[in-house]
């Protein structure tokens, strides 16, 4: 067992205060991970032992920690987080030029480790590793999300739909522009597509197109189509004057601040004379809140800044100016203050669920970068939810629309 011992005993400084461990939140969890590795590597032939050692050491290097800490982190937070970490690792392997056979073997090693943990009752779930086609799709998707604050995740479908329903209920409409009987509608940054689905229902004869980096959810109405495109790389992929109404909402977390004037001008380009453009963007800080929520917002801004994203609500304040500068007339601006929390009925509950899911996703990103401890993230989110009820927290959105002459 000399080889196995040399692997699990290579401890990075700070392992005794590891934040993500199997079965606990203290140093004992790392010891349990060491025991798991000993069990996994025991009684292996020399070639198999060497291959497993290389795989596990490489996974530790990917996370920047020792092997025991890496295994603890893989298993600490449940099947969804484990699978997401395995996908991140697979993408890293591919980006480093590793052959698919190597990627498959290293993922199989992680799956086998989780299987032993399951047998030992350290976890109660098997690790599902991503398939080759999923890895390729994720690489393509992330290539188009270089500026996106929260890279797209399977749970985003549910969150974005909740957000849509909350905003629709608060506004009591899907939009404010005085649009009548449009024939062609475009939704830029369409997300799941639900806004466009609703517009199809409102205008049964209209053709509605949603463009986003990834395809929307299934179940689209017959006159809705989804187009995959990156508007920051080549612009809005349509001819001049094609649409009667162009809508864009909540793109502040994906469009660099310097790109906003050009993007709005391109949106206006594809709008027909007499057609309408509507933009909806929020303030970047919640109102009437406490220290935990402010801390979470601050962490988000620390990620956003190096991506070139807005960190001081410039976009919120400039929506109407963007439209005027792009040549629109009859520009109108209004603000909508939305409750966050169960203190204000259905809308507040929907938006609280949206906020909790977004902050959870943020914490996962920070934990993967070893910026935030798991326990700290959970504590901040729990405290933030209490603050929303105590302080009656709100979130303000700007809505600006104008007509193309």
Describe the structure.
The chain is an alpha/beta fold and 405 residues long. It is built from 14 helices and 7 strands. A 7-stranded mixed beta sheet has the order 3-2-1-4-5-7-6, with helices on both faces. Helix 9 (194-202) links the parallel strand 1 and strand 2. Helix 11 (291-304) crosses helix 14. The radius of gyration is 24 Å and the shape is elongated. The termini are far apart.
From the structure above, extract its key features.
405 residues, 7-stranded mixed beta sheet, alpha/beta, single chain, disordered N terminus
Describe the largest sheet. 7 strands, mixed
**Beta-strand fraction estimate:** 5-15%
Determine Rg (CA atoms, Å). Answer: 24 Å
Widest β-sheet, arrangement of strands: 3-2-1-4-5-7-6
Tell me the span between the first and last alpha carbons. Answer: 78 Å
> Topology as H/E string?
HHHHHHHHEHEEEHEHHEHHE
Shape: elongated
What's the rounded overall pLDDT mean?
Answer: 87
Percent helix? 40-55%
How many runs of DSSP E, i.e. beta strands?
7
